[in-house]
Amino acid sequence: VSSSSSSSSSSFFFFFSSSSSSSSSWCWCCPETVEVKMEAASLEHLVVLYRSEDYLVVNKHWDIRIDSKFWAEERTVQKQLRHHFPQLADPATYYGFRFCHQLDFSTSGALCVALNKAAAGRAYHCFKNRLVTKAYLALVRGSVIDEKMTIDAAIGKNSTEGKTHMMCVEGTDGCENPKPSLTELTVLEYGTYDGDPVTKVLLQPRTGRTHQLRVHCTSIGHPIVGDYTYSLGSDNSPYRMMLHAYLLRIPLEQEPLQVTAPDPFLPTADPKWTPHRKVRTVERLVEDILLRPLAEEAESLEECPCEEKRICPEETEETKIECQRWLSEWPVD
Question: Does the annotation count 146 as an active-site position?
Answer without folding.
Answer: no
